[in-house]
């Protein structure tokens, strides 16, 4: 079970169940906002982007 109290943010869909901020009962994030980043110098595909708000569920 996640250690965060899940209040679903209807604006942020997420299917990464390993994330601390994932709502267990629905594919949504509980954060008020997320930070999206990249690991590439010139991102051109969706695979080049990352959710920098990700925290591994303990």
Q: From the alpha-carbon coordinates, what is the Rg to the nearest angstrom?
A: 12 Å
Strand and helix order: EEEE
What spatial order of strands do you see in the largest sheet? 1-2
> What is the SS-derived class?
mainly beta
Q: Mean pLDDT across all residues, rounded?
A: 92
Question: What distinguishing features does this structure have?
Answer:
58 residues, mainly beta, elongated
Structure description:
The chain has one domain (about 10-50). The termini are close together. The chain has a two-stranded antiparallel ribbon. Strands 3-4 form a two-stranded antiparallel sheet. By secondary structure, it is an all-beta fold. It has strands spanning about 10-15, 30, 35-40, 50.
Quick overview of this protein structure:
The protein has strands at residues 9-13, 28-29, 36-38, 49-51. It has 58 residues and is an all-beta fold.
Give the topology, please.
Layout: E1 9-13, E2 28-29, E3 36-38, E4 49-51
Antiparallel strand pairs: 1-2, 3-4
